[in-house]
């Protein structure tokens, strides 16, 4: 996230009822920024990325729960009931996302952001889960030509004129967004870096954006 939250709230006509302290970057298990609707109000909130997953087999082996932060198969029992209910839909707000690039053991960070846009809105699902609290996951789709060299999947990114359909549409609309054509590759800024995947370093363009806040 390399944009001011007050600016984002104003742009989205959203309320921010509580102060949000985001980490330098969001990984599964850390806080990310989501926009959700409640009784006609749009609200920004910091929520943990990733639903906990603990199967019977994992429990029998004494394993700890894992985090699932991506929704690829809408028919999976983990998601199938949730995705039908508009109450559980959200938009994940971010300025950049990264994919690992290069050879195993020496993966580097390649970053993606939208040209001529201060942030991106990723179609997601959020829910207050027993024992977990509020959590979210983001829906993925086939990657466009810009992302394809690093991953065959990418976030389902929505333009502002699609927000209402996402929040209030039917399950057919949800399926339509996942299987629609992704945003054009020409709209993306691609920043290949030499930074190692676990380096924690920001993309060069983020430093420029943060300097303006």
Write a concise synopsis of the structure shown.
This protein is an alpha+beta fold and 213 residues long. The protein has helices spanning 5-11, 56-60, 163-168, 171-178, 204-211; strands at residues 31-38, 41-49, 51-53, 66-68, 70-71, 89-94, 97-101, 108-114, 120-129, 133-142, 153-155, 188-196.
Q: Mind telling me which CATH architecture this is? A: Alpha-Beta Complex
Query: In percent, how much strand structure appears in the residues?
Result: 35-45%
**Shape category:** globular
- The percent range for helix content is 10-25%
Query: How is the biggest beta sheet arranged?
Result: 5 strands, mixed, barrel
Main sheet: strand order: 1-2-10-9-6
CATH topology: hypothetical protein yedk fold
Which oligomeric form is depicted?
Answer: single chain
Mean pLDDT: 94
What is the straight-line distance between the termini? 12 Å
Number-wise, the strands total 12
Number of helices: 5
- Write down the domain tally: 1
Low-confidence stretches: none
SSE series: HEEEHEEEEEEEEHHEH
Radius of gyration: 17 Å
**Which secondary-structure class do the elements indicate?**
alpha+beta
